[in-house]
Write a structure and sequence with these properties.
Layout: H1 4-15, H2 25-37, E1 41-44, E2 50-54, E3 61-66, E4 79-81, E5 84-86, H3 95-114, E6 121-126, H4 134-137, E7 148-154, E8 160-165, E9 167-176, H5 192-202, E10 206-209, E11 212-221, E12 231-240, H6 243-263, E13 268-277, E14 280-281, H7 287-298, E15 304-307, H8 313-319, E16 323-328, E17 331-332, E18 340-342, H9 343-357
Parallel strand pairs: 3-6, 3-7, 7-16, 8-15
Antiparallel strand pairs: 1-2, 2-6, 4-5, 5-18, 8-14, 9-12, 9-13, 10-11, 11-12, 17-18
Helix pairs in contact: 1-3, 3-9, 5-6, 7-9
């Protein structure tokens, strides 16, 4: 069965490995070595995602997590206070998604120790998940045969199942105005930042409804205080679990850009809105939900089925016909210096995955 002390050691060892997005090689080497020691055949696709397989009996099962972390995530010093693991306060903890990786490794180790019969397992550790699900988007699905599984990348306890997640449209816009000296001839300039301000006050931003949000998360432009800014760039997104709403607000964004563009006929606004990932939604009767409910019941937990406003590798799996649902990994406050991992919940995650692998 899953071992608490071994799990803590593994988790802390993984957390100490720097793995910001784009710098996952050391994590790759560590997890690949551990999987090979457990009898897995480990391979990599062209994007260097880890795809590892272990033969078994029955319908194959995917166990997935990602290798990268967000910044500030270098030189993390994990500290254990009772049942709670946290950083020293100068960095994130990296529980997202090191706790997910540790859960997979501990569960597989426990299964091997027990000698129990188990399902065929396909472990997928993706790269560059943060900021765009890039590893999953570039995953070589010809190397994947399983059609069901779990994504160990959810906030909260393992019984928190993300049964609905949104589509995301990425919004990128470039504004070209006209530079001029701010003191000598400001009337000859067209400020790209003023145009950006008009956009920001007209776009529907923030929480639109319970399943729809939008945001402009990045704005840059200008050169110096005495130059009317010629150029500005905006980067944002629109998300919804409802496709019609996503399309409606995408159209509204385009309309606002057209309206503001008409206000400044001598400027140029170029906007690109493209889909990053698609929504999914499943019900309580779905086979993957039922599979998870059985495993959770074995450790005395009831499933909590929730919708999310965030995307994960699961969105991409669903696009490829693979029903792999995110579950909680015992971590709170993702992407912040206040991030924590609650060890009893991380351990429960390993216990549930152990039961999934043995085909409960």
């Amino acid at each position: 069965m899953a071992n608490r002390e071994r799990l803590i050691t593994t988790l802390m060892d993984l957390i100490r490995i720097d793995s910001p997005t784009g710098e996952e090689d050391e994590m790759d080497w560590e997890v690949s070595s551990r999987l090979q020691a457990l009898g897995f055949k480990v391979q990599h696709d062209a994007y260097k995602n880890v795809i590892a397989k272990l033969d078994g009996e029955g319908e194959p099962l995917i166990l997935s997590a990602h290798l990268d972390t967000v910044e500030p995530g270098r030189g993390i010093k994990p500290q254990l206070d009772g049942d709670v693991l946290h950083s020293d306060g100068t960095t994130i903890l990296g529980g997202d998604c090191k706790a997910g990786v540790a859960i997979v490794l501990e569960a597989l180790t426990a299964v091997r120790e027990s000698g129990a019969t188990h399902l065929p397992v396909e472990v997928i550790f993706s790269r560059a998940e943060e900021g765009g699900l890039n590893g999953a988007h570039n995953l070589d699905f010809s190397l994947v045969s399983a059609q069901r599984g779990v994504v160990l990348d959810g906030e909260g306890p393992v019984n928190r199942l993300t049964v609905a997640a949104p589509s995301q449209n990425v919004v990128k816009a470039e504004i070209h105005g006209r530079a001029a000296h701010a003191g000598l001839e400001p009337e000859n300039g067209i400020s790209a930042l003023v145009i950006a301000g008009h956009l920001l006050t007209r776009l529907p931003l923030g929480r639109i409804d319970e399943e729809t949000t939008s945001n402009i998360g990045y704005l840059e432009g200008g050169l110096k205080r005495n130059i009317i800014p010629e150029r500005a760039f905006l980067d944002g997104e629109i998300r919804s679990r409802d496709q019609q709403k996503l399309e409606h607000y995408t159209d509204r964004f385009r309309q606002v850009f057209d309206e503001v563009s008409a206000m400044y006929p001598e400027a140029r606004l170029a906007v690109d809105i493209s889909n990053s990932y698609q929504a999914y939604r499943v019900g309580a009767e779905h086979p993957t939900v039922a599979m998870l409910a059985r495993a959770l019941g074995e450790v005395g937990l009831e499933p909590r089925m929730e919708g999310s406003g965030g995307g994960s590798d699961a969105n991409v799996f669903f696009e490829h016909g693979i029903a792999a649902l995110p579950v909680g990994i015992g971590v709170r406050s993702f992407h912040t210096k206040e991030e924590t991992a609650v060890i009893p919940e991380v351990l429960q995650g390993a216990e549930v995955v152990e039961r999934l692998v043995t085909g409960v």
